[in-house]
Design goal:
Blueprint: H1 23-33, H2 38-45, H3 49-63, H4 68-77, H5 96-101, H6 108-115, E1 137-142, H7 150-169, E2 178-182, H8 190-202, E3 207-210, H9 216-226, E4 230-232, H10 237-245, H11 247-250, E5 253-255, H12 263-276, E6 286-292, H13 301-310, E7 314-322, H14 324-338, E8 342-346, H15 350-360, E9 368-372, H16 378-384, E10 392-394, H17 403-416
Parallel strand pairs: 1-2, 1-3, 3-4, 4-5, 6-7, 6-8, 8-9, 9-10
Helix pairs in contact: 1-3, 1-4, 2-3, 3-4, 3-8, 8-9, 12-13, 14-15, 15-16
């Protein structure tokens, strides 16, 4: 009598899987029982060996075993199998689960299998890299909720949860609820970034989202292998080019904001407007730029230099790769001594920007200070207090001032009990006295603002993927 004639097949739709395994992990266990390597499993499941390695690590932990052999033993004892065999029965013909995947016509096993929710055969490559299953849609986020920029990360988590709650109140997506899975990380540590995204891939999330990361390429590579849609706000033109040059690999990756290359030209444009409109006395033609350490970052300096020359400026001081609070304090002293007409403080981080400003204010010159992004974080204004009054700043990502953004602000305030990020657009941040008394009239170019969290530039980047 054949094996399949002595075997009874049954199933329960939407049943919970033992040991807290996910549907994808159950497929991996099935293929482990078949003796496949990580590379062979990855080929069958249309994913990467690294993602399979993450799945295996999680499986071992959930089953309480230390080896693949141990997982195989538990899988066999507990019947932790998916039939038909994921990816088809080829290579499993001599094993019982391979026989059950292609039973003889007319046998009880064939009748049961034909009615089962799974179907045999090599599946077509799914667009997302995974088979649709009946469970909530998982949105995996990599937002920091501890460490240097925890305030920013917490706001990102709140806003994401607000969007998810609103979606679920409308019935979810195609009748399926959406759930948020956030993994904490250190955005400056590539190892931490890799662990966070491998964790999300291991949880088989249906989409990924992150803010800004110090080594964005690490996230891109893992997301490309996972193949779920990935949205990020890293403002990196280098990543726009990476996707544009290889859409076959990175076609699931979307940058949701203009790139960092808008910052430098926006700075020159703003200073030109202020000078030409009489709001900035023409005491100097000198501009300065201080740039922090940010891998793959590009503040658009090539275009900025050309723009400055066309508009009667000289960018005659550029400091690169400034890092550490001591390094930023040194630059604050240097700029106060050089006294250019304006300086762009090229750091996104609160501690670095504050260190520069405080040191500059010990013996200030009439230089206009122009910061990037950091003033949008509440701690910046709390720590600087009155010293922050009047500072000009720009950001390529954040809350607009249009009707859509105002409605979002109202919903966010109701949801979280606080304003999203930035202070009122009318508030002025200005370090030290300088003759920009008419800034409060808001006669400023679109890329520049003195409060509020609207983008410093709305120009689309070349190769930027739009949703």
């Amino acid at each position: 009598m054949a094996h399949e004639d002595r075997t009874s097949l049954s199933w329960i739709e939407d049943a919970s899987i033992p040991y807290g395994l996910t549907a994808r992990e159950l497929e991996v266990v099935t293929l482990l029982i078949g003796g496949l390597s990580n590379n062979e499993i990855a080929a069958r499941l249309w994913t990467s060996p690294r993602t399979i390695s993450t799945h295996v690590e999680r499986i071992l932990a959930k089953l309480g075993v230390a080896s693949r052999a141990g997982a195989t033993s538990v899988g066999l004892e507990e019947s932790l199998l998916v039939l038909p065999v994921p990816g088809g029965p080829e290579g499993f013909e001599r094993l019982l689960m391979g026989m059950l995947s292609t039973p003889q016509p007319g046998t009880p096993a064939e009748t049961a299998l034909r009615a089962a929710p799974y179907r045999s055969g090599r599946p077509e490559r799914p667009r997302s890299g995974r088979r649709s299953v009946r469970r909530p849609i998982l949105l995996g986020s990599a937002f920091p909720v501890t460490g240097e920029i925890a305030e920013d990360g917490v706001e990102m988590v709140r806003a994401t949860q607000l969007a998810i709650d609103e979606l679920n109140q409308r019935g979810g997506i195609a009748g399926r609820a959406v759930e948020l899975v956030n993994v904490d990380l250190d955005i400056k540590d590539p190892v931490s970034i890799a662990h966070a995204f491998e964790d999300l891939a291991g949880q088989d999330v249906d989409a990924m989202v992150s803010g800004y990361l110090g080594d964005q390429e690490v996230a891109h590579e893992i997301a490309a292998e996972h193949r779920a849609p990935y949205l990020h706000a890293a403002t990196l033109d280098s990543m726009v080019r990476l996707v544009g040059d290889n859409p076959g690999r990175y076609g699931n990756v979307f940058q949701i904001c203009p790139s960092d290359t808008n910052y430098g030209p926006g700075f020159v444009d703003a200073m030109t407007y202020l000078r030409d409109s009489g709001q900035l006395p023409a005491r100097s033609r000198s501009l300065a730029v201080v740039r922090g350490r940010w891998k793959l970052g590009d503040l658009g300096m090539t275009e900025s230099l050309e723009m400055a020359e066309r508009n009667g400026w000289r960018i005659d001081y550029i400091a690169d790769d400034v890092h550490g609070e001591d390094g930023w304090r040194e630059q604050g002293r240097k700029i106060a001594e050089l006294a250019p007409a304006a300086v762009m403080i090229g750091s996104y981080f609160v501690n670095e920007t504050i260190s520069f400003i405080r040191e500059f204010l010990t013996a200030p010159s009439p230089t206009v200070l122009y910061a990037l992004y950091a003033p949008s974080i509440p701690r910046f204004r709390i720590e600087l207090g009155a010293q922050a009054d009047g500072l000009l700043w720009a950001t390529t990502t954040g809350t607009y001032s249009d009707q859509v953004a105002r409605r979002f602000t109202d919903r966010y305030r109701s949801f979280s009990g606080c304003q999203p990020g930035a202070i009122s657009r009318r508030h002025r941040l200005r370090p030290g006295p300088h003759p920009l008394e008419r800034l409060g009239q808001r006669r400023l170019p679109a890329r520049l603002h003195i409060g509020g969290r609207e983008p410093a530039s709305r120009r689309p980047s070349r190769g930027q993927r739009r949703l």
